[in-house]
Amino acid sequence: MRMSMGLDARQLQVQKIAPRMIQSMEILQLPVQALQERIEREMNENPLLEQQDSDPLAPDENDDVDGNSKDTRAETEKELVVDNDHDNKEDFERLLNMDSELPNTFDDSFRRSANRIQDDADRRHDLMANAEMRPESLNDFLLHQLAEMDIDDHVEAMAERIISTLDARDGGYLRMPLNDLLPSNHSKEDLEIAKEALAVVQSLEPIGIAARDLRECLLLQLQPEMPLHDEMKTLISNHLQDLAENRMPAIQRKTGFSIETIQTARDAMHKLNPKPGNAFTKTYVPTVTPDVIVEQDESGDYKVTLDDDRVPRLYISEYYRTRLQDPTSTNEEREFIKKKINGAQWLIDSIEQRRSTLTKVAQAIVEHQSRFLDEGPEAIEPLKMQQIADRVGVHVTTVSRAVDDKWMQTPRGILPMKRFFVGGTQTDGGEDVAWDTIRLKLQELIDKEDKSSPHSDEDLVEELNKVGMTVARRTVTKYRKKMGIPSSRQRRDWSLVKKS
C-alpha cells in the first residue's frame, strides 16, 4: 500500500448561514419582553442606535420657547428605519462609501446622551425599589420557633441539626435516619436525645413537619377533637394503600366500618396537608405578555395586530451620521462608525422582519382556527405548522420560531400560540377531528357516567365510536391518564353500589 502526501484541489458545495440570517432567526424567536431586553443590550453596546420618543407630543429639552425643535433628528434619521416597502439602501450605501482621507486619532468611547444616562439611572432606581424581599425560609421559620422554647441545650442543638436537613421543596419531610445525624460512636443516651429533639421539631408549625413518611405526616395532623378521629387514625395507620386504590369493600371487611363512614373519613382526610413544607416554596408564575392581539372588525372577521408598542423604534444617531461626514473625523473613527452602522442596520432589519413574519403567521393561524374563536375549544381543528408554512410561504422552522414562547390575546383569553397547533384523526365520515375535541368528549362521557358502574376504557372506546370518533383503547388510556382521570375502579362510588 503506497502512501503519499500532496495537495488535492476539490470543489465542494457547503451550506453556510450568514451571520445576518442567524440574527434574524434569533430576533424572530424572541417574545416581546425578551426582545425589549435584547434591544436594550444592543443599545448599550452600539452607541449609534437611538430610539424614538414613545410620546411624540411630549416636550423635548431641545425645544425652544416657540416650540421649534433645535434637533432635527425626527426628520433626518427616521429615514433609515426599514419599513415593509423600502429598505433605504441608498442612504445606507451613501454612509458606507464616504471619503476616508481623515486624521488618524479616534476616541471610541460611547457618547451617550443625557436622556440615555437619565433613563438608565431611572431603570436602576426602579429595579432596586421594586426588588422583592427574600421570603422567610422553612428553616428560618422553624428556628425562630425553636429559639422561643425552654429546652435542654443538647436537645436544642440536635433539633437545629434536624431542621437543617429539611427541604421545603420536598414537603418538609425528614428523609435522613436519626442514626445518620449522630456520631458513629453515639450512645443510647444520644439516640434518646435525638428522638426527643425530633418530637420537639414535629410539635412546631406547620403541623406535620419533619415526618418520615406520609403516614406519620397525616397522623401528626390529627387532633382529638376532630370528627371521626379514631376512624381516620385507623385508616391512615393501616389502609392508606387501600384508600388510594378505592378498595372500599376490603376496608369494610377489615375494619367493620360502613362504606359511608369510610368515605366520610376519607373526605375529612383530604383536608390534611400531605406536604406541609410546600407553603415555604415560592411558586414562580411568569408574567404573560401577549405578542399578538386578535380582535373582530365590524364585518365579524378576525384581525391580527402586534402588541409591540413597548418595543422601541430604532434609528441611527444623527451625531455619528454627522461625524462620518465631518472632515475632522479620523480613519479609525470612520471605520468604527461604519462597523456600528452595519450592526445597527442589521438589527433594525431583523426587528422589522420579525414584525412582518409574526403578523403573517398569526393571521394565518387565526383564519384557520376561526371556529375555535367563535365556538370554543370543542371546535378547534387539526393544524400542523407545515400548513401555516405553506400558506405564508416560509419554511416550517420559521413558523416554529415565530410561535415559540409567544402568546396571543383572543376573545377566548390569552393563549400560547402553540395552543392552536393540534393533531387529530378522522371520523367515519372522513372529517378531521382534533385530539382536543376528543379529550373534551372523553371528559363529558366520564362526567355523565353512572358512578356506581363507571365506564372502563373499552366502554369509552365504544361510546366514542357511537359519535363517529374512532380511537384505539390505548389512546383513550393515554389521554385519560394525561387528564388526571383515575381508572374505572378508582372512580366507583361504593355508597351508590350498596344502594342500587
UniProtKB/TrEMBL annotation:
Residues 67-87, 490-500 have a biased composition (Basic and acidic residues). GO terms for biological process: DNA-templated transcription initiation. PROSITE patterns: SIGMA54_2 (PS00718), SIGMA54_3 (PS50044). Keywords: DNA-binding, DNA-directed RNA polymerase, Nucleotidyltransferase, Sigma factor, Transcription, Transcription regulation, Transferase. The keyword Nucleotidyltransferase applies. One of its GO terms (cellular component) is DNA-directed RNA polymerase complex. InterPro entries: RNA_pol_sigma_54 (IPR000394), RNA_pol_sigma_54_core-bd (IPR007046), RNA_pol_sigma_54_DNA-bd (IPR007634), RpoN_core-bd_sf (IPR038709). Residues 335-492 form the RNA polymerase sigma factor 54 DNA-binding domain. Residues 130-320 form the RNA polymerase sigma factor 54 core-binding domain. Residues 48-87, 481-500 are annotated as: Disordered. Signal peptide: none annotated. GO terms for molecular function: DNA binding; DNA-binding transcription activator activity; nucleotidyltransferase activity; sigma factor activity. Belongs to the sigma-54 factor family. This is RNA polymerase sigma-54 factor. It comes from Roseimaritima ulvae.
